[in-house]
Amino acid sequence: MNADSSGGGYFWTNFFLNNRIVSGSLIIIIYLAVASIFAYIIYPFVAKIYRGERTFLSPVSDAAIRLSEKILGPLAKKEMRFTEYFGVLLAFSFLAGIIAFIFLYYQTVIPVIAGGTRLGTSLTFNTVVSFLTNTDLQHYSSPMQLSYFSQTFVIMGLMFLSPVIAFAASMAFVRGVLTDSGNLGNFFRDFIRSLTELFIPMTFVVTVLLILSGIPETLNHSLLVQIPFTNANEVLPLGPVSSWNAIETVGTNGGGFYSANLAFPLADPNWFTNIVMFVSLTVIPLSSLLAMGRVFGNRKFGTMLFYVVMTIFIFTAFLTFFSEYAGIPALSGLGTIFTGNMAGKETGLGIAQSTILNVGSTMTSTGAVNSALIDYTPTGMLGVLTGLLLNDPLGGDGTSVMNIFMFVIFTAFLVSLMVGKLPEVLGIKLESKEIRYSTLTIISHPIMILIPLGITLLITGITAGFVNSHAQNITTVLYEFASSASNNGSEIGGFNTSSLFFNYTDGALMLLGRYLLMGLELLIAQSFAVKKARGESVNAIQLGSFNFGMMMMFVIIFMGILSFFPVLVLGPLFSFAKDFNLGVLIP
Amino acid sequence: MNGGDLLKNTITGFRPDILLRNPVLFVTEISMILSLFAYIFHGFFNLPFSASYQEFYISVFILLFLTIFFANLGYSISERQSRSIVESLQKFRKESTANLLRDGEITLVKSSVLRRGDVVIVNRNEDIPMDGEIIEGNGYVSESNITGESRPVLKVLGDSVTGSTKLLTDTLKVRITSDPGETFIDKMIELVRKSSREKTPNEIALTVLLSGFTLIFLMVVSVLYTETGYIGISPNIVFLVVLFICLIPTTIGSLLTAIGIASVNRMSGFNIMAKSGRAVENAGDIDTIILDKTGTITMGDREAKKFYPAPSISLEDFAKFCILTSRDDQTREGMSILKNARKIIGEVDDSEYRNFKFIPFSAETKYSGLVSDTGYIVKGSLRSLEERFGIKDQYIEGICKEISSRGGTAIPLARNGKFLGVIEMSDMLKPGIKERLDLLKKMQIKTIMCTGDDEITAREISAEAGIDEFVSNSTPEDKFNVVVREKAKSRMVAMVGDGTNDAPALARADVGLAMNSGTPAAKDAANMIDLDNDPTKLIDVIFIGKQILITRGALTTFSFANDLSKYFVILPAVFASFSFLGFLNILDLTNPLLAITSALIFNTFIIVFLIPMALKGVRFKPSSVQELLKRNILVYGVGGIIMPFIAIKLIYMALASVGVVW
Predict the structure, then answer these.
(1) Mean pLDDT of B409-416
(2) Among A268, A386, A506, B141, which residue's CB has the most CB atoms within a 10 Å radius?
(3) What is the pTM of this model?
């Protein structure tokens, strides 16, 4: 450290590079800026898809739609109302789930493609539900448990299906708001359009980028390497990692090819792959929010959504970064040069790049991790947890639009009353039905987390095998259920998650978190679908205004605080207070 | 209902089956019973037992009792108000005798046997037996018993009259327009009664929201119980009960019904009858108001101020023609012209006009007068005369323009292709109208004035009064078109009307306010009726509508904002055994029992402070939506977060200083 001796021109070099808190903050800002820039670049394209306008890829989707019409007949042409649209969506998901279940359950015995180890019923159920609902919670312990076929086709197939289904639902939602025809559109058409025009091209681009940057993409199962000096033989597991990572992030899935997910060195080797994956997991949700401005002809509305989510994003990113940088007294007080809490983090990436990806993946419904969450400091964890507790404010592909819209309706109701106006959104008058559904959507998330949490803590047997202290266990269980209910899939670990209890409870939460919410949201779309969105009148509460944005952010955060504060006090804050010796423990 | 009844109602409100309608209060009552249980059977929940704990348990019970008591009180007061309104209305529903005219014969019958379509004769100093419409005659009617206005009102042909009002002069022939039980007063009683039962869509939505939050807080507190058990301390269940009560939105939950009733009561206080609570709420959302010029912005009782005969005609001759055209004219203008013209030339010889027929004034033709096959004498608006009779006169036009630019109305007279002169009708702005229109402007509400006058008069008046837009030479269809045009811009439109011609526009508008003196058709189409016949009251209606919504929104926001402070007061008390969680105790309340009691005291007594606010509505400064939002977020949102911290700390210090030591 010769910062003092180097004068003048070296000051800024020191300031930006050697001062790690500044350089780390800069890295986080750069990550967010790059993601935002890409979101701004592709949002007109996303808006076109939402508005049903033609893109340069429309010929491809037209061909696919014609094919689907041949196969499915009138069903693929029909304009659907809520019951049909959601019914078809459910049936389609259920069918995919059943097929995946059969292939996974019998993966060891199906001829030709047999492989892996036998997964129990509960684990198979959990795995299928998890990938079907875009959660990608991985209760199986290592990818070796899955056969090569299951991994590449069943799981990756579901990873493609789930974001596309959600995106189709969001297209129906947007259509419901825009139209007054009473119809939500056709599920198959929406599905095919979003698959062929958005997801396949995006995944392709990201895959190419990742392959170029050195992530494996091979049909070889493994590579035997002989380590110099020791001459020991090591087996490096390989596979289509690049394309897996691409759909894992583009589809806001988050399930890792390796059990350590992106923390495995081959999955996320350097800063370039890290930033590519960060951008690809945030870009569709972010651009969808921006696209809302163009879709509803109210540019400020889209910008408002973007800024509200960005503000929460920045706050949680820095909370986690600073917490990890500061560490805890037990470590930082050891007397050696403390470089932040590097436990469980990839040295090639460092604290800033590790934390921003983990926060980004809980802000969206991705859940991919590039560092071990169990080694995070309590407040660092709180930053990552915030996203889960707020039901992924940035959301997943498709769900980002629908989830945030629930808060828009809820806030518009409250704000309208506060200024003495009848509640309306984008020129559509809100009635008690819409407010009822949006309230249900918003409160169901905390309820889905709190009920199983309370039950789990009551049954002593469940938490007996946990490795941590009581407070950390509360955090762990809270994290597990929050991750399931918000369809995120991020995991702390620290206990054997593949038990009957957690497999089925998480599975149920994932299904409810996905389809109950989607159903309620589409119900709102249906009741909007008979009313024409005429745009805001001059005198209405301006949804794009600063005041409305502030109020909405306040509502989102306050909702989280009111629902989870007592739990947080006994979880992360408890550990934090203990770590920082905020008092003397009186047992 | 006297004070004793009030108390009785408040106490009956404790019945669980009544409280069940309000989930928030119902769970409060259960908690109250629980705390009493804790007081009596202290060993039951492993609760700590000592003299101070016993005092604490009983004070929790008392405070929860008071919470429900105050909530019921707010409801009972508003109920009492509406009941007294009903009672005073019922007094007017009295039986009287009526002179029923059937087949040319008059029979005396009771008013209760009258049916729609019957025709009755009402003589001087008799009560009008039932709601109806004047089909012959005119006279002064005292409506003091329903409007409180002692000055009698002139009712002319086509006006509607209300049952139980009294005719003071002349004789009227009235066609009955309603069956017994459907009269105006019946409807009004029904409405005030209904207001305490019927919930508006907004109220329903808010109830759902509040119930949802109550459910979440139930979960939060239950999980807190299992968590504390898991971490190894057995929590005091009464602490958790208090935390739960403090978190659930007791304030807005208990006052929600009272707010709705109070708003309808306030409307009745303004002598406005709203046909539904929904109409009142709609009023708050108005973006555009369509106002008539005459009677709303200007005094309306237009008087013939001055006569300007054409150069070739003497003043006496001109006055004579004025009398001839106005003798059968039932409009207020016509009567005034007749009265003032008679001052110039007493009686006139009308023998040569025997075969002329009188054409009454209509809003479409805009002229009236005598017409025969051989000639005509008419008066009306300059444009209508020019167009209808194809005459033109620069001198007359000049005078008209001059009168218009003074804000007056010019009524030229024409006879057989020649203008005779002009009558100047004076009209003044109503006192205070400019200030009221300014308030509307501050709320960004657009005002449109419709007038049958020419453009110059309209421009003059609207500039003087501060009107945003005007439609001159307007016909009733124009009014309807303006409503349609504004609604197409997704604006909420309010309008005032009284004539049958206004009915389509009234029905189309989001808020249609009809005058009580208006025709039955107009009153049917409107969703509000003003008993005082004061069109400017539309502005009050908007205020009340806004106020009721703001009161609900503000109290809801305030209620939830309050919750943050309660976490920071009660959680440290619950976790008092973990000293390192002391960082949560930002208020530095050292005694857990006292801290929890302070929070509950705040929670209970804030209701008392908010009852007047709920009944009278929150005060608000008329301003733009954005400004209002900013202000209310600051006052009820941010203020709602900060205020309880200060209040609870003060209550705690007060309790400690008077020597409550637990």
Answers:
(1) 86
(2) A268
(3) 0.84
Q: Report how far residue A153's alpha carbon sits from residue B136's, in angstroms, rounded to the nearest whole number.
A: 90
Distance from CA of A226 to the nearest CA of B (A): 49
Contact residues on chain A for B546, CB-CB shorter than 8 A: 420-421
CB contact under 8 A, A563 and B489: no
Model confidence pLDDT, tens digit, residues B81-114: 777 777 777 776 667 788 888 887 888 888 778 8
Q: What is the ipTM of this complex?
A: 0.89
CA torsion sign for B24, B26, B29, B31 is negative
Which tokens sit at A406? 């629930």
Distance of alpha carbon A345 from the chain centroid = 21
Residue type, B25: L
Active site residue ranges of B: 292
Separation CA B280–CA B268 (nearest Å): 11
| pLDDT of A440 above 80 | yes
Architecture of the domain made up of B97-179? Distorted Sandwich (2.70)
Q: What residue type is B45 in one-letter code?
A: F
Flag whether A526 is in a domain.
yes
Give the homologous superfamily in CATH for domain B303-426. Answer: Calcium-transporting ATPase, cytoplasmic domain N (3.40.1110.10)
**Single-letter amino acid code for the residue at A190:** D
**Which pair of tokens denotes residue B415?**
């006879």
Tokens 């629902």 identify what position? A563
Contact criterion met (CB < 8 Å) for B227 and A567? yes
Per-residue DSSP letters for B329-394?
--SHHHHHHHHHHHHHS-----GGGTT-EEEPP-TTT-EEEEE-SS-EEEEE-HHHHHHHH----H
What are the residue boundaries of the structural domains of chain B, listed by start? 3-86+191-267+559-657, 97-179, 282-298+429-542, 303-426
CATH numeric code, B282-298+429-542: 3.40.50.1000
Q: How many CB atoms lie within 10 A of CB B657?
A: 8
Q: What is the pLDDT of residues B434-455, one digit of tens each?
A: 888 888 888 888 889 888 777 8
In 3D, which of B381, B292, B404, B387 has the Cα closest to residue B333? B381
Whether residue B217 has pLDDT greater than 60: yes
**Domain annotation covers residue A509:** yes
Q: Which amino acid is at B394?
A: Q
Task: Quote the CA–CA distance of A46 and A64 in Å, as a whole number.
Answer: 19
Domain of residue A107, residue span: 20-579
Give the CB-side neighbour count of residue B531, counting CA atoms within 13 A. 23
In a domain, A260, yes or no: yes
**Burial readout A431-467 (b: 16 or more C-beta within 10 A, e: otherwise):** bbbbbbbbbbbbbbbbbbbbbbbbebbbeeebbeeee
Q: For residue A427, is it left (φ>0), alpha (ψ between -120 and 50) or beta? A: left
Residue A13: inside a domain: no
Min Cα–Cα distance to chain B from A394, Å: 23
Angle at B347 between CA B346 and CA B352, to 5 degrees: 145
The token pair that represents A69 in the structure block:
């019409």
Which of A372-394 are b and which e, b meaning 16 or more Cβ less than 10 Å from the residue's Cβ? bbbbbbbbbbbbbbbbbbbbbbb
Say how many residues make up chain B. Answer: 662
Any idea what the Cα angle at residue A395 is, between residues A392 and A397, rounded to 5°? 150
| Interchain proximity B219–A451, CB inside 8 Å | yes
